[in-house]
Write a structure and sequence with these properties.
mainly beta; six-stranded antiparallel β-sheet; Immunoglobulin-like; 3 helices; four-stranded mixed β-sheet; elongated; 10 strands; single chain
Length: about 150
Amino acid sequence: MCKFFTTLFLITGVMVIPAFGQNGYILSISGPEVVCPGSTHSYTPVWEYAGSPASPPAGGIVNWTVYSGTVYTSGSTYALIGWSAGDGFILYEYTANGTYYYATLNVTINCVASLTTSPDITPEDRDLCDPGPRLATSTEVDQPVIGSR
């Protein structure tokens, strides 16, 4: 298992640290890891059992904890989080039948870094930090010819 995560890190450059609960479950959090201050994003817990997608154990109690952000709404399958300044952190906790499961996710809050340092950012991703409509420059607008008839 360690070799798998080492290989994953070398291939993607992203360190994924799943939390191992008891009874064979693996729990992680899915959602953006680089966000802009003032933005809001959805995060979901991802459950696996024996390497396959799974549902969490029945009858669990959920708790979402966020640093450098605010949980606007949440449930057992999602959290809508608004981010402020400084790097953030999400902790998802789930307790069922006396067994405690948890997952964490570090979140970098830096709009400029998300636009300039990641080669994987596409034009569709950039609108997360778009300050608004761009003004046209004089070279982009047809200039009227003054004094022509």
